[in-house]
Structures are given as C-alpha cells and as structure tokens.
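In the previous chapter we treated chains in isolation. Here, by contrast, the input contains three separate entities that must be folded as one system, with a combined length of 1076 residues.
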Amino acid sequence: MAETNNLIAGATGDWEIVLGLEVHAQVASTAKLFSGAATEFGAEPNSQVSLVDAAMPGMLPVINWFCVEQAVRTGLGLKAQINNYSVFDRKNYFYPDLPQGYQISQFQQPIVGEGAIEIDLDDGVVKKIGIERLHLEQDAGKSLHDQHPDRSFVDLNRSGVALMEIVSHPDMRSAAEAQAYVKKLRAILRYLGTCDGNMEQGSLRADVNVSVRKPGDELGTRCEIKNVNSIRFIGQAIEFEARRQIDLIEDGGTVEQQTRLFDPKTGETRAMRSKEEAHDYRYFPDPDLLPLEFSQDFVDEIAESLPELPDDKKARFINDYGLTPYDAGVLVGEAENAAFFEAAAEGRDAKAVANMVIGSVFAGLNKADLAIADSPVTAAQVGQLVDLIADDTVSGRTAKEVFELMFEEGPEQGKDPAFIVDEKGLKQVTDTGAIEAAVDEVIAANPDKVAQAQERPKMAGWFVGQVMQATGGKANPQAVNKLVMQKLGLA
Amino acid sequence: MSVDENMVRRIANLARIGVSDDDVPGLAKELSAILGFVEQLSELDTDGVKPLTSAVEDKIRGRDDVVTDGGYAEDVLANAPEKDDEYFAVPKVVE
Amino acid sequence: MADLTELNLAEARDGLAKKEFSAVELTEAHMARVSASSALNAYVLETPEKALEMAAESDKKIAAGEARPLEGLPIGVKDLFCTKGVRTTACSNILGDFTPPYESTVTQNLWGDGAVMLGKLNNDEFAMGSSNETSRFGPVVNPWKANGTELVPGGSSGGSSAAVAARLGIAATATDTGGSIRQPAAFTGTVGLKPTYGRCSRWGIVAFASSLDQAGPITHTVRDAAMMLTSMASFDKRDTTSIERDVPDYEAALTGDIKGLRVGIPQEYRVDNMPAEIENLWQQGIDWLKAAGAEIVDVSLPHTKYALPAYYIIAPAEASSNLARYDGVRYGARQNGVDIDDMYAQTRAAGFGDEVKRRVMIGTYALSAGYYDAYYVKALQVRRLIAEDFTKAYEKCDVLLTPTTPSAAFPIGKNVEDPLEMYLNDVFTVTVNLAGLPGISVPAGLDSDGLPLGLQLIGKAFGEEELLRTAGVLEEAAGFDAQPQDWWSA
C-alpha cells in the first residue's frame, strides 16, 4: 500500500520525521510490583508506601505474580513473543523520587519480545507498527518542584508501582501516526484490562523519540521528549520538535542527542538539565531476586482467557454486521462502546443501530461529557427506537426528537421510546388515506403551484413540505412524496 | 589497569560521593592497586561459562495481588532529616 | 553463686530450667560485665532497660513452664540487624541516629524464642572489613593480647566476637559476606557459623552484598551455635532468596559420631608462605578427625586463588548499588548542599568512611559501561567455576577441612594503610560465600604468642547437620579451653 506523503517541507527541501515511542503503562493491579502497598491514585502523600518502597535498610523485593500475568497478557495482545525466562536488572541512578538509588527494571532479557500493532489512519489506511519489546519495571515516586523557592517535596506513593514499558520500532513517520499508535495501544490495553490508560492521571505516558532526515538518508540524531501525557500533546510536541530540528540543521547546526520536556503552556520542548554520565546506568541482575520463569501452561492459560481485541472485533463487525470500516472502527474504540452497540443491535438492522449509536448516542455523550456507562439512554432503548423507525411508527426525523427527550429525561422506567412517542403524540401518520386527503387538500388550495410543479418537477418538494406541516410533521415522508408525485402526475 | 584522576572524578560523580582535589591522587592510587589485584582474573579462560549471579537454585517465588502493606506514613517519615508535613523535603531539583 | 558469665548457652539454659538462678540474675551479671568492659569497645549501644524487661518476661515464662528454646539467654546483636525502636547504624555515620520501626526477621526469631537483648555490637562500617577498625565508633579491641599489644578481634563482626570471648553476652548474632563471622571467631577463640546462603532470612539486615550476606551466630561452643542456628533460621516470604526448607533441631545432630565421614583436604589451601603453625594445626585437625573414624581424602579446588579477586569485584559491585539508598533523603544524617546533587555528594562524603568509599567506587567502576564485561561478568563466571569446584569435590567427600585464617589476630593499626593486605585475611573464607555453602570455624589451638587459631569446616549446601556434627567432634578433640586474661575490666 502506498504510504501517504508525510514529508515536511523545509528551506532546503523535504524532510522525513522518524518517530519511535516508549510508552509507560501502569499495570492495573491492586498492589505494587515488588511490595504489598496499594496503587490507587490520589491517596494522601506517603500513605501508600511500605518499608520496601521507602528503601529502608534491609528491605527486599518480592514479586507480585499478578503483574507478571498482566505483562504476559499484554504481550499476547500485542501478538508478541513471550519469554518464559527473563531477568530483573537494577538501573542505577540518583534522584530523590527513586528511594533505592536504583530502579528494578529489565535490561537485556525482557519478559516480552517482538510484536506489532496495526494503526488506523485517515482514508482507511492501515499501517503496521513494530514493537521491539515490553518489560516490567518499577515506577518512581513524585517530586514537587514548584511548591517552595528552594525545596522540592517527595511523595513516594507511586514508587514501586508496576509499569510495563512498551518500546516501538521507529516505524512512525508523522504526528498523526504516533497519535494513532498511542490510541490503538491504549485501546488494546483497556480491552485486555491490563492498564486503564488514564493519561491525565499518568497511568499511560509516552516518551517520544524524534529525529529528522532527508528521505533516503541515514537516521538523524534523535531527541527524547519525556513523559508526554496526552495524545494531543504528543502531536504538538512532535510538530514542534521536528520543526526545531529541521530549522536547526538548515541553519547549519547539528542536533545534539538530548532528553527534552514538552511544556503544554508554550507548546515547545526544552532540554532537561543533563549530566555527562547521566546515562551510565550500570545495569546488573538484581541479586535480591531470582530469574523470572514460568511454564508454557501459565502462558497458554492466559492466552485462552484473552478477550476479543479491537482489530478482531472490528473485522467481525464489518463481516457479520456489514458495517463500514469507519463505523466499525469508531464502535470498537472502547470495549464498552462496542458492547453497547452489540446489545442494541441484537436481532435488528445493525447498520441502523450503528448510525444511531454513533450519530446520537456518542454525540450526546461527548456533549454532556459522559462515559457510555453513564449514558441516559440504554442500549435496549436504542434498539427499541430503531424498531420504531423500522416499522414506520416514527420517521427518522421524529426519532431524533424522541432520542433527545430520552437523553434529557434519563433512563427512568416508563420513559422508553414507545412511551414517549405515545405521550407526546409523535406517532407517524402512515395511513395512506389520511395522507392522500392531506395531499389533495394542498393541491386543491394551490392550483398555480401545481402548474409550476408540472413544469419544474423540483417544486414537488414544496408540496411535500406543506403536507408535512399540515400533518404536524407526523406524516411518513416517503409516502407523502410518493403520493404528491402521483397526484401531480410526475411519478 | 590504573585509574587516572579523571576516572576517579567520574566514578565519584556516578557514585555521588564528593571528593576534594586533595583526595583524588590518593584514591587513584588505592583504586589502581585494588584493580591491579582483581585483574588476575583475566588469566582464566572463561569462554562459554555461564555467570553465576546467585547461589540459589530455586525458582522465583511471588506474592498475591493484595494490599498487605503501607498506610503508615508516620513511620515512613519518622527518620526523615527534613520533612514538610507529609512530604520528604530536599534541596530543590532543577529539571 | 558461681560467676554466671562463665556459662555457655546450654549450661545457662540448664541452670535456668533447674531454677539455679533467674533470668534477671543472669542478665544482670552480664550487664555488669558489659558496663565494666568499655575498654574493649565491643558494644556501641547498651539496652539495659530492654534487657531487664525481656529477662523479667522470661522468668514469667519459665515459672509458668512455658520456657521457649532460648528463654532468658542474654545475647548481643551486631549493629547490622535492624532492631525495632533501637538505634541501628551499621556503625556508619551516614545512618546517624536511625531508629528502625521494624525488627529484622533473624532477631525477631530470637526474641520469639525468648532470648534477651543486651545491646548492639560494634562492627566494621557496613560490614566491610576484616578487623573492625573502620567503625564510626572506633576500633574494637580483642580481649586476647600478646606482648601487651592491643589486637584486632577480626571483622567485620569484631564486636560480636570480642563480646563472646570476653563473656559480655553468652552469644552474639553476626553476619558473614566474605568471612566476617568465621575469621573473627578464629581470632578470638570462639565458634563462628555461617549457614548456607538462604538458610537465614536477610530481611531487616543492612545489606552489603546481597548474594553473599548471611546471618549466623558467634558462640562459645558448637552446641551453642547449633542452638542459635535453630532459632535464627527460618523461611521468610519477605526475602525472595530465602529457601523454603524445614529447620531441623540442629542440636540433635550433635551425635559425636563421624565414623566413615569423608573429610576432604583441598590442596590449594596450602598457600605460599603459610606460617608453619597454621600448617601444623591443620595437620593436627586432620589427625583428630582421622582418629575419630573419618576418612581423609585429598581433593582439589583448582580455582581457589581466584576467589579473592572475584569476591573483591562482586561484593563491591553489589554494595555500590545497595548503598545508593544512603543519600540523606529519607533517614540518617544529611549534609546540606546548594542543590540535590551537591547534597548527595556532601552527605555521602561525610557519612561514609574511607574503606566504604573505596569499595563503592570499585564497585561502581566494575559495573560501568566498558568495564562491566571485563570485571563483573568475568567475576561471575569465575564464581561459577569456584562453585563447580566444590560440587566436584563433594563427589569424593562430605565436608572439607581447612585453616580459617592465614594468621592469628594482628595488632590494631597494622594493616589500615594497606587495603590489599587487609583483604588477604579472607583468603580461606571467601570461597565459601561465593559458592553459598555453610562454613564454621572451631577454635583449635594457640599460636606461639598464645593467641587462638581456628580450623574451618565447610559443608554441602544445607548440610549444617553434618557440618555441626563434625565440628563437635573437632571441638572435642581439640579440647580448646584457653580464655583471655581479663585486662580490660574497669
């Protein structure tokens, strides 16, 4: 498939951006990776800190087996190689939110190897992005640097929480691709239940590696933008950084390998304070632990319990429900959304249901800033409303009215669409006789328009409008149209 | 292998141990002597020998995913040289 | 009443059971002796109130017929074990007045079995040393003297060995990473036991080198060591390297019968310039065991000479990482700095002594980019070769007999300027830590200056019963009953 041209124009010609992402996903678990303290977000400072997390003298790590399961589950979801033997290494460096002075991570032998995910781009293009590896590691605590003129404050609640670091190959070529990658990865993680993907709370963050080159050239020097915590910021950071590097090179400079931070307020990246030896982490196998080993049975059991993943669900929606790739893609974005759709679509016209779910439900939820779980309109009600259109009880237009009423009222008993239609008298008029009478009336009252319409058939629309008005909008538009055309002799 | 004064400063920095200019030459000498001693290992042919990280032959043991710890911020902060309410306090870190 | 401090653990246990004296009396006798013995500098913190409280509790238990295995027996604790509510410093300035809100598993086991804590014992800073001369609290003086000179008690568990030898506690806890229990025991005429790696939990013990550290007792007799090990050892879920294995009653292994036991004599332990006295004592040991019915077998541990250099890469490497947490942020002493890195640098420069700094730096170097393969990986490969040496040797024998140290205790100050010379003290002991095996030092004789010398027995992994049984026979044959003359009491 031909790649969209993602090249950026510079002063000296076109440039290609090369992007690789290291995504840190907090493992959805109750306790931390090597300690029994809790992982919940938002607790009082240092209240979810065990002696191990505080790196007190003599403290030792013991692995949380569920975190291992979650990592394997994620690896399987990424169609990746699972390594039944892997090693935990210490990554040594000094920072106040790193109590041990080292992070327990995995260096040369990670738990998961090569995999891939498919990202969905505009125009229905699907691109495969390679994943190099996934490993388990501890998160660090949090430092607050802006509360005091000369002091920083440290909260270790997050210290020791399990993270999965997912490293992509440098296969992305635009901000849009990077965003699509993170979106897709997030969806997969949420489907699997291995990470809640909450970027605002920091359960999912991305380090973005950006470099630029002239097409066909060797890879350029890359800069790493650390801890970008929203999809929007990822796009902005890449745009800024790519431009910065291009301008720098075109002005005769060279790109220095740096770690940078993205500032959402300014939309710019800036270099972090660096120390020359900052990157000598002196990795070595953690002597307080043993190699991580599990049986193939362990892996197979997890594989059997995997839920249907977004891509498979999307393919099934296209195949079984006849939905368009676009609509299917929208519906499978969140597992809960897809489930809502399927519940509503059971035993009826899936396309019609899809239209209502995407058009009315999602639109309404977005506007009201609600999640599908809090939808005022239930899947059953959507289904019922679709049925009412299908059997001509209401027209499509009236149905929209009914939907809005349901959305406002909320899912109270008795406020099902049929009830509302009844209560508000919105039933569509389908009785051909009644419609014919209305058509006759309008025709009789407007002989000059009749003559005009016979010369310009488009004018029939005026008659349809009049009949609709006369029936309070309740006449079946198709029937009205048919009869008008007939009576005007235009059919 | 001898370590020169630059290397001493580099290592000291990696280890976050402050060394004065006066300390450096002495340290270079001492460290070089120790490294000279340990270097005799290079006499041995260890091709194909798998490194032994731990004497333990057992498989790794894990725990269940339940909260069994934490919830004692007072104890955690009790020995802090400097704190502010519920936080550890340190000289400002500039990123 | 006879001097209650003359008793060993088994005798004291017996005496308490027979109600010949109370636990409080026993503890008070030891406390008095401790107070009078500050010249030895064995204790860095005395805990008299706690000791009396615990002793009183023990008396209640004994009276109720609920005496636990070590009920009422007063012991000292190396200041490397975290003791709840009691200052723990690893004898380093960097820990300041750190008071742990938790108790190490090993000491908890001892208190749970009724033992009484007299206080915290001196040691080389962060367990790095072979003479107890690097402690923030100053050197420990060996109760044994020769020619009027003050001698080292060995290290790193110098406070433990001196205390037991001077009867300032009936037994003491200690730790051994490269010989730190066995060598001080040999220097002070006491018994020092390092169990198999993983036998005792490391939870709550200030870590020096994670893959080598192991807790163990220093005692008067082999029986006492067996008693202590039975209590100290346990499977601890909080320590991933703790081995899940039942703890037998080690005392029951002391049958005195080693007929048919194959005792291996490793030829490579016959080092160049080995003092004749040590050589003779070793031969003496061989004869004793032979006379007791053991079969003597010559074996080879070909990579022995590389153990010391391998150790002096692996231990510092692990230590450089284990000691990174001592940064002045969450506990211990802090030096202020203009920024965080300055604070780290100043805190650690002021807080760590010279030997610790040396080892942390060696370790940092050995792990750093460009040197990792040549040093650290190489050392781990050599470690495997050393471990395999033992495995092969144990096809032909059941235990090994060697000297414990290449000399008797040396004068304080003699080797402080020469780290390498100091390291050579561990030449007979480090192999055992690298292979994770159990080892014990038994006092076997006196040298021409009247100073104690020890013989070391090395066992198979989790072969402590056989090891202790053999040690018991050796102890019986040696009949070592010399005591240091009290010159230090105030």
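The longest strand of chain A covers residues 13-26. The CA atoms of residues 233 and 264 of chain A lie 7 Å apart. Compare these points with the single-chain example from earlier in the chapter.
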